[in-house]
Amino acid sequence: MSSKLSIILTIVGVAALTVALILVAVKQEQAEKVVRVEVDKRIGEDVVATFVGENNPFYGRVIETLADGHAVVDTTLGRIRGVNATWRVVGDNVIVFVRPERCKIAEGADFDNVIESTVDRLDFEGAFVNLFLHGQRGKDIIVHMTNDGRALEFQAGMSVKFGFSVDNATILPEGELAAD
Questions:
Q1: From CA 167, how far away is CA 98, in angstroms rounded?
Q2: Average pLDDT of the chain?
Q3: Residue 39: other Cβ atoms inside 10 A
């Protein structure tokens, strides 16, 4: 029997959105590794972030850990403060995941994290617009917005600042399953 990876995701609870992840690596008919992770509103494993839905990945290195459960990550796009979901330490290579609908155009608003990037394109989807910005490692940064007509002011090549809350940025280890 060849090696295979079985992944089972279950969503338990309606309001709490508890996600249980079970990974079983099977090789020659024997379970080599079984991992069960329970996570609440925050994503607790890097692989979960890829299966739960769209996420903007920001690659970097932890430069500071904070007593409040957050950490500061240095990326090529700037420093990002987020939830240190798996207790990463200074020097760890990590990915900070932020969902597209949690990103907002800054326009002078006060955000915990503000990043500047360049507009690549806009995709219109009925009542919504996805603003695609230049990201890291060939990955777009997606800002999901309501189509209220303002999106037309964003042209390819223009510089845009967007922001998000520290509690909407989840820091997870960079690893084989999360790397592209």
A1: 9
A2: 76
A3: 17
Task: Render pLDDT for 145-168 as a digit per residue (tens, 0 to 9).
Answer: 998 888 888 899 999 999 999 999
The rounded distance, in Å, linking the Cα atoms of 133 and 102 is: 15
Q: Name residue 33's beta-bridge partners.
A: 25
DSSP 66-114: -TTSEEEEEETTEEEEEEETT---TT-EEEEEE-GGG-EE-TT---SEE
For residue 11, the cross-strand partners are 19
Q: Is the pTM of this model over 0.90?
A: no
Q: Whole-angstrom Cα distance, residue 176 to residue 180?
A: 8
For residue 25, give the nearest of 12, 16, 40, 35 by alpha carbon. Answer: 35
82, 143 in Cβ contact below 8 A? no
Does pLDDT of 89 surpass 80?
Answer: yes
Residue bearing tokens 């995941």: 97
34 pLDDT tier (thresholds 50, 70, 90)? very low
The encoded tokens of residue 94 equal 């990590």
